[in-house]
Design brief:
Helices cover 71% and strands 0% of the residues. By secondary structure, it is an all-alpha fold.
Length: 158
Amino acid sequence: MLSVISYPVFLISAVLALVLSSSLFPVGWFEFRPEWLGLVVFYWTFRAPAQFGILLAWCLGLLLDVLEATPLGVNALAMGVIAFLVLTVHQRLRMYPLPQQCMMVFLLLGINQMLVHFIKQTLGADESGFSYLWPALTSALVWPILCPLLDNLNRKLG
């Protein structure tokens, strides 16, 4: 756990994640885009569970709902679930080496994607198949870069 939390780094990472989550990607690459906000919620809940928890994750998810024009509460619920699941395993997660952390990122963000997909299906979306899990996989591949990057920024600016 980090001893000093840099709130400006948190704010910048959250805003950047929201921008990257709502930015336009080429049509063929859109389904492979990492779940940026989920990664940021995962990171900050993992590194500072006392300061960043379910309520803050829910608020960030609500902002993502507004930015993506999805029904209010879909991403808010999913981000709250991510924060809850990370809070339940963060003690064990700190002891895991980076490859196991990547697997946990894939698992938890996969649960997030399944929950969002289920809610959208319930509301009438006509997507089928398992292509909704690609963001969880790409997020797990981005985790070994994002985690040390945010750690270094937090140490230098915190």
